[in-house]
Design brief:
The chain has about 500 residues and is of the alpha+beta class. The protein has helices at about 25-40, 55-65, 80, 95-110, 110-115, 120-135, 140-155, 180-200, 225-255, 265-270, 275-295, 295-310, 315-325, 340-355, 385-390, 425, 435-455, 495-505; strands at about 40-45, 50-55, 165-170, 175, 365, 370, 375, 380-385, 455-460, 485-490. Bound molecules: protoporphyrin IX containing FE. Belongs to the cytochrome P450 family.
């Protein structure tokens, strides 16, 4: 196979190859530009990190899906080692250790198990409303709390905990919010910061140490080492906390009899009678990553939805017509409304497509040499699927920059099976496909229907008179997260408070 040529790609310089021509910010856009010249499988000559970019769904399906026995590994970064977070199974090598972790995760988040978290997800969506009405936090923070807490609710409490909770004043009444504890709030920010440190190192060429690993032995005072050492120090601190704090605090509250049933409690149950420290470590690792893996990704998808709504009032109105017709003014949306809320389902799909959460996914790695379309894929190559390009392909999604849920519907208003479902791309591929996808999709469905049923979303207009879209600016790393959500929400009617209260009373 060695005689086969590498896939085509932009010409590089001697020794450094494409290192300097690969942009450090939003490289997916440049990858896509290059693919117009070199094709949908392109080779980047990055020192010590031969990289293949897959720019089409066809190429990704052929390699990452159909040949997943070869392409399910992950590239190992020196920076990951320096940040001490190799326990994180998202970045683990493909093999028995990864399999054991993934199996434990899957037991609790497979399609069937994910359904048991729906009551908690429903409650999370209503707590969001309370905070929105109260105005106690900004919209951006509320989304972060809401979407991040939703994954956490079942992780921490399937039944209300006994220990202290927040009380929030909403208009003249007080409600107990048992889904949000100060501890949750802290972990939301912790996981955001930790994932950010891991995200930035995945941009090719972001850290020189990947090409000169011996740099790690140099003392701190040597000029040029500050950048990666500072990053590694911060990453180590954050990832160590992620590894220990959620697990230890829940374990302690279970010991003290202060925690209700929870996924964590269930996972811990599997090691309760075991003296095997290895088993406990696996549970600790999985819990550490579950807490974080769910947060920023789902928050980003919810941010995209809110921003898209502020920019497309016509979509809001259409969705609200559907909600008024199916649900009416006297109750809030339920999961059982799913089948009838077709337009909302299309909005969920469009939210996953329009501003893809992870534009280059999480890169895979080729375990062994392979041949594709007459080209050689080198053993150990980093494989970057360009999700952004696939979800912005105008042949499949005409006018891809527009937020148009109608693209997923037939003329008579059903979901169109002939249009590619964006969740087959935005959640990744093959054996590494996101195992939290059922959970995340359910969280998005119930949040989107609850928000649109009760609130109107408005844009904040910039100085140039144009609504501000934070996703138009350049971001660092591989996650399309925005620090702020420049929109406002107002209740659609005075009814909203009563609806929440009625629901609260009926579920007490
Ligand atoms: C809208 C929300 C989400 C999006 C768009 C998303 C997207 C992704 C993507 C693109 C990957 C990489 C797949 C690949 O390697 O090809 C991934 C992996 C992963 N996701 Fe998600 N995700 C979301 C929500 C969640 C949630 C809610 C959880 C946990 C409850 C979760 C847990 C994980 C884990 C553990 C992995 C690593 C899997 C492995 O390497 O074996 N994700 N996700």
């Amino acid at each position: 196979m060695l005689s086969l040529p590498l896939p085509p790609g932009p010409k590089g310089y001697p020794i450094v190859g494409n290192l300097f021509s690969t942009p450090k910010k939003m490289p997916w856009k440049t990858f896509h530009e290059w693919s117009k010249t070199y094709g949908d499988v392109l080779y980047l000559d990055i020192p010590k990190q031969p990289t293949i970019v897959l720019d089409s769904a066809e190429a990704v399906i052929e390699l990452l899906e159909k040949r997943s026995d070869i392409y399910s590994d992950r590239t190992q970064y020196v920076m990951d080692e320096l940040m001490f977070h190799r326990w994180n199974f998202v970045i683990m090598r493909y093999g028995p250790e990864w399999r054991t972790h993934r199996r434990l995760f899957h037991q609790h988040f497979n399609q069937r198990e994910s359904m048991q978290y729906r009551p908690a997800q429903l409650r999370g969506s209503r707590d969001f409303l309370r905070r929105a009405l109260d105005g106690s936090v900004s919209l951006g923070e509320n989304l972060r709390l809401y979407v991040s807490v939703v994954p956490r609710v079942p992780l921490l409490y399937l039944t209300p905990p006994i220990f202290p909770v927040y009380t929030l004043r909403l208009f003249s009444r007080s409600y107990m919010i048992w889904t949000l504890t100060p501890m949750d709030n802290e972990y939301i920010h912790l996981s955001h910061d930790a994932f950010e440190t891991a995200s930035t190192i995945r941009i090719p060429g972001a850290f020189w140490i990947e090409f000169f690993p011996l740099l790690k032995y140099l003392p701190d005072w040597v000029p040029g080492t500050g950048h990666f050492k500072r990053h590694a120090k911060r990453g180590t601190e954050l990832w160590t906390r992620m590894h220990h704090e959620p697990f230890d605090s829940i374990k302690q509250s279970i010991r003290d009899g202060k925690s209700g049933d929870s996924v964590i409690a269930r996972m811990l149950e599997t090691v309760r009678d075991s003296s095997d420290e290895q088993q406990e470590m696996i549970v600790r690792n999985v819990i550490g990553i579950t807490y974080g893996g769910a947060a920023d990704t789902t928050t980003t998808a919810a941010q995209s939805f809110v921003i898209a709504m502020s920019l497309h009032p016509e979509v809001q109105r259409k969705a609200q017509e559907e909600l008024d017709r199916v649900i009416g003014p006297n109750r809030l949306p339920e999961f059982s409304d799913f089948e009838e809320l077709i337009y909302i389902q299309a909005i969920v799909l469009e939210s996953l497509r329009w501003n893809v959460v992870l534009p280059v996914g999480v890169p895979h790695r080729a375990i062994r040499e392979d041949e594709f379309r007459g080209f050689r894929i080198p053993k150990g190559a980093t494989i970057i699927p360009n999700l952004w390009a696939m979800l912005r392909n105008p042949d499949e999604f005409p006018e891809p920059h527009l937020f148009k849920p109608e693209r997923f519907l037939t003329e008579d208003g059903h979901l169109n099976p002939n249009v590619r479902n964006p969740s087959t791309i935005s959640f990744g591929f093959g054996r590494r496909v996101c195992p939290g996808r059922w959970f995340a999709s359910a969280a998005l469905f119930i949040s989107i229907s609850t928000i649109l049923h009760t609130m109107d979303i408005h844009p904040i207009i910039g100085e140039d008179g144009v609504p501000y879209n934070p996703f138009d600016v350049e971001i660092d790393g591989i996650l399309m997260n925005s620090e702020n959500v420049p929109c406002t929400m107002t209740p659609r009617s005075k009814n909203v408070e009563r609806l929440i209260h009625d629901w609260e009373a009926s579920s007490a």
